[in-house]
Structure prediction request, 380 residues.
Amino acid sequence: MVKNEQGVGIVETRSVTFEQPLKLESGEELGPITLAFESYGKLGRAKDNAVLITHALSGDAHAAGYHTPNDRKPGWWNHMIGPGRPFDTDKYFILCSNVIGGCKGSTGPSSVDPKTGKPYNLSFPVVTIADMVKAQKLLVEHFGIERLLSVAGGSMGGQQALEWAVRYPDHILSAIPIATTARLSAQGIAFDEVGRQAIYADSKWQSGNYTLNDKVPAEGLAVARMLAHITYLSEESMHAKFGRRLQEKERYGYDFSTDFKVESYLRYQGESFIRRFDANTYLYITKAIDYFDLERDYGSLEKAFNHVTAKFLVLSFSSDWLFPTSNSKDIVRALKINKKNVTFCEIPSPYGHDAFLIPNEFQERMVSGFLNHVMKTNRQ
Prediction:
Protein backbone atom coordinates (compact mmCIF):
# COMPACT_ATOMS: atom_id res chain seq x y z
CA MET A 1 0.00 0.00 0.00
CA VAL A 2 1.74 3.15 -1.24
CA LYS A 3 0.44 6.33 0.31
CA ASN A 4 0.15 9.64 -1.50
CA GLU A 5 1.64 12.05 1.02
CA GLN A 6 -0.55 14.87 -0.29
CA GLY A 7 -3.68 13.09 0.91
CA VAL A 8 -6.98 14.51 -0.32
CA GLY A 9 -5.64 18.09 -0.27
CA ILE A 10 -7.96 21.07 0.19
CA VAL A 11 -11.56 20.12 0.97
CA GLU A 12 -14.82 21.94 1.60
CA THR A 13 -17.52 21.22 4.15
CA ARG A 14 -20.91 21.35 2.45
CA SER A 15 -24.44 20.93 3.72
CA VAL A 16 -27.84 19.71 2.60
CA THR A 17 -31.22 20.42 4.19
CA PHE A 18 -34.12 17.96 4.35
CA GLU A 19 -37.47 19.65 4.82
CA GLN A 20 -39.45 16.55 5.80
CA PRO A 21 -39.43 16.15 9.61
CA LEU A 22 -37.61 13.13 10.99
CA LYS A 23 -39.53 10.93 13.45
CA LEU A 24 -37.23 10.41 16.40
CA GLU A 25 -37.05 7.42 18.75
CA SER A 26 -38.49 9.62 21.51
CA GLY A 27 -41.64 10.05 19.44
CA GLU A 28 -40.91 13.71 18.69
CA GLU A 29 -40.32 15.08 15.21
CA LEU A 30 -37.36 17.19 14.12
CA GLY A 31 -37.32 19.21 10.96
CA PRO A 32 -36.13 20.66 8.78
CA ILE A 33 -32.76 18.94 9.23
CA THR A 34 -29.45 20.23 7.93
CA LEU A 35 -26.49 17.86 7.69
CA ALA A 36 -22.95 19.12 7.21
CA PHE A 37 -20.78 16.72 5.25
CA GLU A 38 -17.54 16.24 3.37
CA SER A 39 -16.82 13.81 0.56
CA TYR A 40 -13.55 12.54 -0.89
CA GLY A 41 -12.93 10.56 -4.08
CA LYS A 42 -15.44 9.94 -6.85
CA LEU A 43 -18.70 8.05 -6.76
CA GLY A 44 -18.57 5.31 -9.38
CA ARG A 45 -21.06 5.10 -12.22
CA ALA A 46 -22.65 2.06 -10.56
CA LYS A 47 -22.56 3.87 -7.19
CA ASP A 48 -21.18 0.73 -5.56
CA ASN A 49 -17.98 2.19 -4.07
CA ALA A 50 -19.40 4.42 -1.31
CA VAL A 51 -18.03 4.23 2.23
CA LEU A 52 -19.63 6.15 5.09
CA ILE A 53 -17.27 7.29 7.84
CA THR A 54 -18.95 7.94 11.20
CA HIS A 55 -17.36 10.13 13.85
CA ALA A 56 -16.91 9.88 17.61
CA LEU A 57 -18.21 12.22 20.34
CA SER A 58 -16.08 15.26 19.59
CA GLY A 59 -15.63 14.60 15.85
CA ASP A 60 -17.30 16.20 12.87
CA ALA A 61 -17.61 15.97 9.10
CA HIS A 62 -13.99 17.07 8.56
CA ALA A 63 -12.39 13.63 8.48
CA ALA A 64 -9.54 14.31 6.04
CA GLY A 65 -7.65 17.00 4.19
CA TYR A 66 -7.33 20.71 4.95
CA HIS A 67 -9.82 23.55 4.66
CA THR A 68 -7.16 26.09 3.67
CA PRO A 69 -3.49 25.89 2.65
CA ASN A 70 -2.62 27.47 6.02
CA ASP A 71 -4.40 24.88 8.18
CA ARG A 72 -2.06 23.39 10.77
CA LYS A 73 -4.19 20.32 11.48
CA PRO A 74 -5.91 18.06 8.95
CA GLY A 75 -9.17 16.16 9.39
CA TRP A 76 -9.43 13.82 12.35
CA TRP A 77 -8.79 10.57 10.35
CA ASN A 78 -6.48 12.06 7.74
CA HIS A 79 -3.94 9.22 7.89
CA MET A 80 -6.69 6.73 7.03
CA ILE A 81 -8.33 8.58 4.11
CA GLY A 82 -6.72 9.46 0.78
CA PRO A 83 -4.97 7.99 -2.25
CA GLY A 84 -3.21 4.77 -1.29
CA ARG A 85 -4.53 4.94 2.27
CA PRO A 86 -6.88 2.36 3.83
CA PHE A 87 -9.94 4.31 2.71
CA ASP A 88 -8.38 4.75 -0.71
CA THR A 89 -9.94 7.69 -2.54
CA ASP A 90 -8.63 6.30 -5.83
CA LYS A 91 -11.06 3.41 -5.30
CA TYR A 92 -13.78 4.57 -2.93
CA PHE A 93 -16.15 7.48 -2.54
CA ILE A 94 -15.83 8.51 1.09
CA LEU A 95 -18.65 10.36 2.83
CA CYS A 96 -18.61 11.76 6.36
CA SER A 97 -21.29 13.89 8.02
CA ASN A 98 -21.63 15.72 11.30
CA VAL A 99 -24.33 13.94 13.35
CA ILE A 100 -27.65 15.58 14.17
CA GLY A 101 -27.32 17.01 17.65
CA GLY A 102 -23.84 18.20 16.65
CA CYS A 103 -22.40 21.70 16.56
CA LYS A 104 -20.35 21.66 13.38
CA GLY A 105 -22.96 22.53 10.78
CA SER A 106 -25.60 19.89 11.39
CA THR A 107 -28.86 20.66 13.17
CA GLY A 108 -28.30 20.64 16.92
CA PRO A 109 -29.14 22.51 20.12
CA SER A 110 -27.22 25.63 19.02
CA SER A 111 -29.16 25.78 15.73
CA VAL A 112 -31.99 28.24 15.24
CA ASP A 113 -35.45 26.78 15.80
CA PRO A 114 -37.48 27.91 12.76
CA LYS A 115 -40.59 28.10 14.96
CA THR A 116 -39.11 30.67 17.34
CA GLY A 117 -36.22 32.26 15.47
CA LYS A 118 -34.02 31.54 18.50
CA PRO A 119 -31.53 28.75 19.29
CA TYR A 120 -33.14 25.48 20.33
CA ASN A 121 -30.96 25.10 23.42
CA LEU A 122 -32.62 22.50 25.66
CA SER A 123 -35.88 22.60 23.69
CA PHE A 124 -33.97 20.53 21.12
CA PRO A 125 -35.30 16.96 21.33
CA VAL A 126 -33.10 14.23 22.73
CA VAL A 127 -31.57 12.25 19.87
CA THR A 128 -30.20 8.72 19.82
CA ILE A 129 -27.63 6.81 17.78
CA ALA A 130 -30.55 5.41 15.76
CA ASP A 131 -31.75 8.95 15.01
CA MET A 132 -28.27 9.91 13.84
CA VAL A 133 -28.24 6.91 11.51
CA LYS A 134 -31.72 7.72 10.16
CA ALA A 135 -30.47 11.18 9.22
CA GLN A 136 -27.35 9.70 7.59
CA LYS A 137 -29.61 7.45 5.54
CA LEU A 138 -31.25 10.58 4.09
CA LEU A 139 -27.82 11.89 3.08
CA VAL A 140 -26.86 8.59 1.46
CA GLU A 141 -30.14 8.58 -0.49
CA HIS A 142 -29.46 12.19 -1.50
CA PHE A 143 -26.44 10.88 -3.43
CA GLY A 144 -28.55 8.16 -5.05
CA ILE A 145 -26.65 5.41 -3.24
CA GLU A 146 -28.77 2.30 -2.70
CA ARG A 147 -26.18 0.23 -0.86
CA LEU A 148 -23.05 1.32 0.97
CA LEU A 149 -19.89 -0.67 0.47
CA SER A 150 -19.11 -0.11 4.14
CA VAL A 151 -19.80 1.96 7.25
CA ALA A 152 -16.77 2.49 9.46
CA GLY A 153 -16.06 4.36 12.66
CA GLY A 154 -14.55 4.20 16.10
CA SER A 155 -16.10 4.69 19.55
CA MET A 156 -19.50 6.38 19.04
CA GLY A 157 -18.77 6.01 15.32
CA GLY A 158 -18.59 2.27 15.86
CA GLN A 159 -22.00 2.34 17.52
CA GLN A 160 -23.36 4.02 14.40
CA ALA A 161 -21.77 1.33 12.22
CA LEU A 162 -23.50 -1.35 14.31
CA GLU A 163 -26.83 0.49 14.09
CA TRP A 164 -26.50 0.75 10.31
CA ALA A 165 -25.94 -3.01 10.00
CA VAL A 166 -28.89 -3.85 12.23
CA ARG A 167 -31.38 -1.21 11.04
CA TYR A 168 -30.62 -1.27 7.31
CA PRO A 169 -29.35 -4.77 6.47
CA ASP A 170 -30.23 -4.42 2.77
CA HIS A 171 -28.36 -1.13 2.40
CA ILE A 172 -24.90 -2.01 3.72
CA LEU A 173 -22.41 -4.61 2.49
CA SER A 174 -19.96 -4.38 5.37
CA ALA A 175 -19.32 -2.73 8.73
CA ILE A 176 -16.10 -1.79 10.50
CA PRO A 177 -16.88 -1.04 14.16
CA ILE A 178 -13.67 -0.08 15.95
CA ALA A 179 -13.03 0.32 19.70
CA THR A 180 -16.74 0.30 20.41
CA THR A 181 -19.55 -1.43 22.27
CA ALA A 182 -23.11 -2.56 21.70
CA ARG A 183 -24.02 -1.14 25.11
CA LEU A 184 -22.04 1.24 27.31
CA SER A 185 -20.95 -0.05 30.71
CA ALA A 186 -22.11 1.45 34.00
CA GLN A 187 -18.61 2.88 34.39
CA GLY A 188 -18.81 4.57 30.99
CA ILE A 189 -22.22 6.05 31.81
CA ALA A 190 -20.82 7.27 35.13
CA PHE A 191 -17.98 9.14 33.44
CA ASP A 192 -20.45 10.76 31.04
CA GLU A 193 -22.69 11.84 33.91
CA VAL A 194 -19.82 13.47 35.81
CA GLY A 195 -18.98 15.42 32.65
CA ARG A 196 -22.58 16.57 32.33
CA GLN A 197 -22.67 17.57 35.99
CA ALA A 198 -19.57 19.72 35.45
CA ILE A 199 -21.47 21.62 32.76
CA TYR A 200 -24.62 21.92 34.89
CA ALA A 201 -22.54 23.33 37.76
CA ASP A 202 -21.15 26.17 35.64
CA SER A 203 -23.18 29.29 36.51
CA LYS A 204 -22.89 30.45 32.90
CA TRP A 205 -24.80 27.39 31.67
CA GLN A 206 -28.07 29.07 32.74
CA SER A 207 -30.07 25.85 32.41
CA GLY A 208 -28.89 25.61 28.81
CA ASN A 209 -30.16 29.07 27.84
CA TYR A 210 -26.83 30.70 27.08
CA THR A 211 -26.08 31.90 23.53
CA LEU A 212 -22.89 31.46 21.58
CA ASN A 213 -22.53 35.24 21.36
CA ASP A 214 -22.87 35.54 25.15
CA LYS A 215 -20.86 34.11 28.00
CA VAL A 216 -20.77 30.33 27.59
CA PRO A 217 -20.18 27.63 30.24
CA ALA A 218 -16.57 27.25 29.21
CA GLU A 219 -15.24 26.17 32.59
CA GLY A 220 -17.76 23.36 32.97
CA LEU A 221 -17.18 22.12 29.43
CA ALA A 222 -13.41 22.24 29.94
CA VAL A 223 -13.65 20.07 33.06
CA ALA A 224 -15.93 17.63 31.22
CA ARG A 225 -13.35 17.37 28.45
CA MET A 226 -10.47 16.90 30.90
CA LEU A 227 -12.27 14.02 32.59
CA ALA A 228 -13.24 12.40 29.29
CA HIS A 229 -9.74 12.77 27.89
CA ILE A 230 -8.31 10.77 30.79
CA THR A 231 -10.59 7.88 29.79
CA TYR A 232 -9.31 8.03 26.22
CA LEU A 233 -5.71 7.40 27.30
CA SER A 234 -4.04 4.52 29.11
CA GLU A 235 -1.93 4.47 32.26
CA GLU A 236 0.99 3.25 30.15
CA SER A 237 0.75 6.09 27.65
CA MET A 238 0.29 8.72 30.38
CA HIS A 239 3.31 7.39 32.27
CA ALA A 240 5.46 7.41 29.13
CA LYS A 241 4.37 10.90 28.12
CA PHE A 242 4.27 12.60 31.52
CA GLY A 243 5.23 10.36 34.42
CA ARG A 244 5.54 12.60 37.47
CA ARG A 245 7.60 15.18 35.61
CA LEU A 246 7.19 18.77 36.69
CA GLN A 247 6.03 21.60 34.45
CA GLU A 248 8.86 24.11 33.93
CA LYS A 249 10.12 23.86 37.51
CA GLU A 250 12.58 21.79 39.50
CA ARG A 251 10.61 21.38 42.74
CA TYR A 252 7.05 21.46 44.03
CA GLY A 253 5.51 24.90 44.38
CA TYR A 254 3.69 23.91 47.59
CA ASP A 255 0.65 25.81 46.36
CA PHE A 256 -2.19 25.19 43.89
CA SER A 257 -0.36 26.26 40.76
CA THR A 258 0.34 23.77 37.99
CA ASP A 259 3.11 21.50 39.27
CA PHE A 260 2.94 18.49 36.96
CA LYS A 261 3.15 18.22 33.18
CA VAL A 262 0.04 16.05 33.11
CA GLU A 263 -1.92 18.86 34.81
CA SER A 264 -0.77 21.33 32.18
CA TYR A 265 -1.67 18.91 29.39
CA LEU A 266 -5.21 18.36 30.68
CA ARG A 267 -5.78 22.09 31.07
CA TYR A 268 -4.63 22.59 27.50
CA GLN A 269 -7.04 19.92 26.32
CA GLY A 270 -9.90 21.61 28.14
CA GLU A 271 -9.03 25.09 26.88
CA SER A 272 -8.66 24.00 23.26
CA PHE A 273 -11.91 22.02 23.35
CA ILE A 274 -14.08 24.96 24.41
CA ARG A 275 -12.97 26.86 21.31
CA ARG A 276 -14.47 24.26 18.98
CA PHE A 277 -17.35 22.61 20.81
CA ASP A 278 -20.71 23.50 22.36
CA ALA A 279 -21.66 22.57 25.93
CA ASN A 280 -25.28 21.67 25.17
CA THR A 281 -24.12 19.48 22.28
CA TYR A 282 -21.86 17.66 24.74
CA LEU A 283 -24.93 16.89 26.89
CA TYR A 284 -26.96 15.57 23.96
CA ILE A 285 -24.26 13.43 22.40
CA THR A 286 -23.14 11.80 25.65
CA LYS A 287 -26.79 10.94 26.34
CA ALA A 288 -27.06 9.33 22.90
CA ILE A 289 -24.00 7.20 23.68
CA ASP A 290 -25.46 6.20 27.05
CA TYR A 291 -28.83 5.23 25.58
CA PHE A 292 -27.38 2.98 22.87
CA ASP A 293 -28.17 -0.61 23.87
CA LEU A 294 -28.80 -3.23 21.18
CA GLU A 295 -29.44 -5.90 23.80
CA ARG A 296 -32.27 -3.88 25.35
CA ASP A 297 -33.74 -2.89 22.00
CA TYR A 298 -33.87 -6.42 20.55
CA GLY A 299 -34.06 -8.65 23.60
CA SER A 300 -30.50 -9.91 23.24
CA LEU A 301 -27.39 -9.16 21.21
CA GLU A 302 -27.88 -12.41 19.32
CA LYS A 303 -31.39 -11.35 18.29
CA ALA A 304 -30.12 -7.91 17.27
CA PHE A 305 -27.75 -9.49 14.74
CA ASN A 306 -30.15 -12.16 13.52
CA HIS A 307 -31.02 -10.41 10.26
CA VAL A 308 -27.75 -8.61 9.45
CA THR A 309 -26.22 -9.44 6.07
CA ALA A 310 -23.07 -7.30 6.26
CA LYS A 311 -19.56 -8.66 6.56
CA PHE A 312 -17.88 -7.40 9.73
CA LEU A 313 -14.37 -6.33 10.64
CA VAL A 314 -14.32 -5.75 14.41
CA LEU A 315 -11.21 -4.15 15.89
CA SER A 316 -10.23 -3.42 19.49
CA PHE A 317 -7.06 -2.21 21.18
CA SER A 318 -5.18 -3.97 23.97
CA SER A 319 -4.92 -0.94 26.30
CA ASP A 320 -8.43 0.45 25.79
CA TRP A 321 -10.10 0.30 29.20
CA LEU A 322 -13.06 2.54 28.30
CA PHE A 323 -14.37 0.27 25.53
CA PRO A 324 -12.29 -2.83 26.35
CA THR A 325 -11.73 -5.82 24.08
CA SER A 326 -14.38 -7.75 26.00
CA ASN A 327 -16.99 -5.40 24.49
CA SER A 328 -15.81 -6.26 20.98
CA LYS A 329 -15.74 -9.96 21.80
CA ASP A 330 -19.39 -9.74 22.87
CA ILE A 331 -20.23 -8.37 19.42
CA VAL A 332 -18.15 -11.05 17.68
CA ARG A 333 -19.68 -13.83 19.78
CA ALA A 334 -23.23 -12.72 18.93
CA LEU A 335 -22.35 -12.54 15.23
CA LYS A 336 -20.73 -15.99 15.32
CA ILE A 337 -23.79 -17.49 17.01
CA ASN A 338 -25.79 -16.19 14.05
CA LYS A 339 -23.17 -17.63 11.65
CA LYS A 340 -22.37 -14.21 10.24
CA ASN A 341 -19.17 -13.32 8.38
CA VAL A 342 -16.92 -11.63 10.91
CA THR A 343 -13.20 -10.99 11.28
CA PHE A 344 -11.85 -9.84 14.64
CA CYS A 345 -8.51 -8.55 15.85
CA GLU A 346 -7.28 -7.07 19.12
CA ILE A 347 -4.50 -4.71 18.05
CA PRO A 348 -1.54 -4.21 20.40
CA SER A 349 -1.24 -0.54 21.31
CA PRO A 350 -0.24 1.45 24.40
CA TYR A 351 -2.45 4.43 23.52
CA GLY A 352 -5.76 3.45 25.10
CA HIS A 353 -9.14 4.24 23.57
CA ASP A 354 -7.69 6.96 21.33
CA ALA A 355 -5.53 4.35 19.55
CA PHE A 356 -7.96 4.18 16.62
CA LEU A 357 -7.18 7.85 15.86
CA ILE A 358 -3.41 7.30 15.81
CA PRO A 359 -1.47 5.82 12.87
CA ASN A 360 -1.19 2.07 13.39
CA GLU A 361 0.10 -0.33 10.76
CA PHE A 362 -2.12 -3.20 11.96
CA GLN A 363 -5.31 -1.17 11.75
CA GLU A 364 -4.37 0.29 8.38
CA ARG A 365 -3.53 -3.06 6.80
CA MET A 366 -6.62 -4.80 8.15
CA VAL A 367 -9.01 -2.08 7.00
CA SER A 368 -7.36 -1.89 3.57
CA GLY A 369 -7.43 -5.65 3.02
CA PHE A 370 -10.98 -6.01 4.30
CA LEU A 371 -12.38 -3.29 2.04
CA ASN A 372 -10.52 -4.66 -0.98
CA HIS A 373 -12.03 -8.09 -0.31
CA VAL A 374 -15.57 -6.70 0.10
CA MET A 375 -15.35 -4.72 -3.12
CA LYS A 376 -13.84 -7.61 -5.07
CA THR A 377 -16.47 -10.04 -3.81
CA ASN A 378 -19.29 -7.63 -4.56
CA ARG A 379 -18.14 -7.13 -8.15
CA GLN A 380 -17.67 -10.80 -8.99
Q: What stands out?
A: The longest helix spans residues 361-379. The chain has two domains: 14-185+294-379, 189-285. The mean pLDDT is 96. The longest strand covers residues 33-40.
